[in-house]
Amino acid sequence: MSSTPSAHPNRDVRMRGFSSRVTVAEALQWLDAQLAPLPMEKVALDVAGGRVLGETICSRVDVPDFRRAMMDGFALHAEDTTGASPYNRLSLAVIGQSLPACPFPGSVARGQAVRIMTGAPVPDGADAVLPAEKVEEAADNIFAQSEVSPQKNVGAIGEDIRRGTTVLDKGRRLRPQDVGVMSSIGVGQACVVRQPRVRIVVTGNEILPAGSAARDYRIADANGPMLAALVTRDGGLPFDEGIIADDPQAILQALRCDADVVLVSGGSSVGQEDHVPTLLADHGELAVHGIAMRPSSPTGMGRLDQRLVFLLPGNPVSCLCAYDFFAGRAVRALGGRNKTWPYHRRTARLHRKLVSAIGRTDYARVTLRDEQVEPLAISGASVLSSTTRADGFVIIPADSEGYPEGAEVEVFLYE
To answer: Which of 85, 100, 265, 309 gets the highest tally of CB atoms within 10 A of its CB?
Structure first.
């Protein structure tokens, strides 16, 4: 097999079975060749948190751009406090006050002091602030009861940020404090990577709307809400316009939407009602269909017009697995985020063996008990509750037959 999957011919693949399956590595190679961050957009700072910065931010100002008091007290010459103590009080004349945004207009000479509040400008002449608790006040003067060194309790110009320095690098996912820093240097909008719009298309005549009680041999949609939560986690903007019947024209209309990515849940395999692969092959590009992995082997992907389309299995665990391996990677990359899994990793020993087959990648749900890894299941693609009982998953690569009891394995943690 070539290193890059070739597009499947435009044919009806239903009820024929998979003649071959590409490897996970080959599927990822095709996918990564399609991925680049979306264009930039400007947003207000109050909605910029969590977005990916599209440009490097350099400060054009010093922060602060004036000397400021770091404590409530008195601005003075430090030398005027030399030798001061509770037993040797030194008198200074109070000549005014400095408040935030309302500075003292004059200069402080030797033997003088200005009452000052935290954050207020330190007046000319003064080189220190003596804290209020180290002072005894009288009518028009104070008695210093402690020494203070030059520049003590005075915030210097540019102490926080110097003019011309790089504050935030392009590609950074903005945290709340990052947005605060941008505001502090006079940046009112953030230039960020546009969030990918992701259409969730859930197909199946047997599917009821999410949250419905099962009835008449029909089941409630679990994949739609799960995919919406995953897309949101990965920085995308999900939208779902309801269950789509197993009707080719209805499905094709849903695929042709205002979105950057389309996630189709169900109808992706080779059954009688699995129309999506044929529709994508006939109207766009079906680049991958059938991957050597468990679960999620019916997964497919391709393009329709300018949007990426992912064919995710209807079985819930398979749907989650296929999203994790492929669709989530695309959503993150298009939004400027790191393509790799957003899961913390931990190494621990297996309580019992994990068995796989050469040539197939396995996604095994596991729990952590007493610092050991306990496998839950490899098969059982319809048992979504296995993922809620699991603490994470272990990947068994295609070139491995599994891991023996006691082996150290890497666990990807759902939390």
So the answer is: 265
The two three-digit tokens of residue 120, written as one number: 């207020």
6 belongs to a structural domain? no
For 343-347, the CB contacts below 8 A with 24+ separation are 343/392, 343/412, 343/413, 343/414, 344/412, 344/413, 344/415, 345/410, 345/411, 345/412, 345/413, 346/392, 346/410, 346/411, 346/413, 347/408, 347/409, 347/410, 347/411
Specify if 11 maps to a domain.
no
Give CA–CA dist 261/268, Å, rounded: 16
Q: Are residues 59 and 109 in the same domain?
A: no
Is the pLDDT reported for residue 19 higher than 90? no
**Same domain for 211 and 121:** no
Q: For 325-344, what is the mean pLDDT? A: 96
71: Cβ contacts below 8 Å, ≥ 6 apart: 118, 129, 131, 132, 153
pTM for the model: 0.84
Provide the CATH number for the domain around residue 151: 2.170.190.11
